[in-house]
Design goal:
This protein is an alpha+beta fold. The chain has helices at about 80-85, 125-135, 175-180, 190-200, 215-230, 250-260, and strands spanning about 5-15, 15-25, 35, 65-70, 75, 90-95, 95-100, 110-115, 140-145, 150-160, 160-165, 300, 310, 315-320.
Length: about 325
Amino acid sequence: MAPRANWKGYLKLSLVSCPVNLYPATSTSSRVSFNTINRKTGNRLKQQMIDSATGDVVEKDDQAKGYPVAKDHYILVSDDELDTIQIESTHTIEIEKFVPRSEIDPRYLDAPYYLAPNERVGEESFAVIREAMRDDKVVGLGRVVISRRERIVMLEPLGKGLLATILRYRDEVRSEDAYFEEIPNIVLPQEPKDLAHVIIERKMGHFQPELFNDRYEEAVVDLLRSKEAGMPAKAPDELPRPANVINIMDALRQSIAAEGGAVPGSAPGRVVAEAPGKTTAKPSSGTEASGPTRPKAPSRTKGKDGAAEPASAAKGGKAKT
């Protein structure tokens, strides 16, 4: 079954356009989630909207959006009124500008999507736009309305389609000045930098996301499996805390030794590590490349709302950890 599109519309470059679908490129559905329950009864708790003045429960039909203009005074806006707002980016992503990919600060990257043609008649136009960007090594910038909000979108070729990354606006990105202004300017000698380069080279490899598991998520799954089996929760291990570095040179030399090699400039008879830039680290191979196996969650049943939950867990509204 084909994935369901989050947005349908048109991709437009000047007078060239084609119908496209926008699909989310990430998912959090595999994360463990919890329901909120009544500890005394084991029943699921429901969230209700309460009038802040009367304390009465307000039913959904009586709930409305309100923009505060003064104390206890709001301008009410209905969903139907919001739906009447139509701008071009509601249904069309028009590429307004092309820029080098390197000019996009990574702090502006928000959420990735996949953009693909949704009709055979538009496939050629889509391919022309995609390949032109690929040949010129640029990305396109446009706008798109998602969840009633217009966002900047960056388009770049990805295989046979386009990767559409939602960008943050300038006022959503904080400047680093306030956080870094008290860091002193330090003129470093060459020797500690050379030792740091040796450590970097020994840890050099390639990005393999399958080697990185969510260890907290795995620990939560282990906890649930133990509780489902009637076992007590395991006492937490006391984790060592890193000590403050007193002598940076000693710490660097000890780090190199811990990585399985000799320290440059060590005593005769010991293997001396090659100077920085002389070695080429290779990514690990063999069974390690497949990454550690993610433990399976406890058996799960479907709650009334269709959400999966551990068989022994009470059923209730989800609350993310």
